[in-house]
User: Fold this.
Amino acid sequence: MALVKERRQLNLRLPLPEHSERRPRFPLPLPPSSASISTTTTSSSSSTNTAAAAAITMADLEKVQVLGHGNGGTVYKVRHKRTSAIYALKVMHSDSEPNTRRQIFQEINILRRTDSPYVVKCHGVFDLPAGDMAILMEYMDRGTLESLMKSGVVFGEETIAKIAHQVVQGLEHIHARKITHRDLKPSNLLVDGKMRVKIADFGVSKIMCRTLDPCNSYVGTCAYMSPERFDPDTYGKDGTYNGYAGDIWSLGLTLLELFMGHFPYLPEGQRPDWATLMCAICFGEPPCLPATVSGEFRGFIECCLQKDSSKRWTASQLLSHPFLKNFRGC
Assistant:
């Protein structure tokens, strides 16, 4: 049975390095020089956009600060010593729970299959001593859509259309490669200073063996699960769960949440519990938009939040929706 995960911002309580001429080193043994990765350097910082492709080792990187930690790992903001390029480094510790380690292997496998400007880029993977592992990824300097929302940013229709256009293109890319995200939500959508949005955190994602897979597990965040995840016999096709359609449902709820400023199935400030959410998603009507929104926005959300999964639009269909027509060049 799924547990509701409380949504919260990244925990920054770990000590950060002090500014001094002596730059901090990783508290991890360095791998042999042969354990390097090839990467094309990308960064949201304008000072590093022109960095050349290079082979990177752990010895080339210095820790700048801790971005967050949990689930057996720590995410660091790191800098390449020679080029000053900025990256995010996710380190998974060897004493992590077996399920957590399986998730990191799955994330690595999926990131290696993707190559889209709308999916966070993986620059490579390190096998570290003592069984630790690390993924070097591009750094998105504005954090997540959730952190922006909690900081008071108001998302109007035009901004939401631009966000939706980018996320839908990311979903179209991964769905074409038979990958379902299964945990799409504001905290898993990263943002840079130009409001470019990328899908991240593929730890509970799945590579589909066939179009429809049995709904045999509750993974991801309960609040964003589609009705057929709870009741595939009623809302699924032939009693099955369509992971692609499930991602579209999560997209609809995410966009609604950005517009409303709080999770749309609950009154503002109310803490969710599993039973309340399950009843609301399965037995209630999808959340409504205010009467003041445009018909295009309302129609787009309705295409995402069809309770019958077979009636939801696909990512490819959504790209042709009138709500996104002015943002095809994003």
Summary: Confidence is low (pLDDT under 50) at residues 1-53, 210-219. Residues 291 and 298 are 9 Å apart (CA to CA). Residues 37-138 form a domain with the Phosphorylase Kinase; domain 1 fold (CATH 3.30.200.20). The radius of gyration is 20 Å.
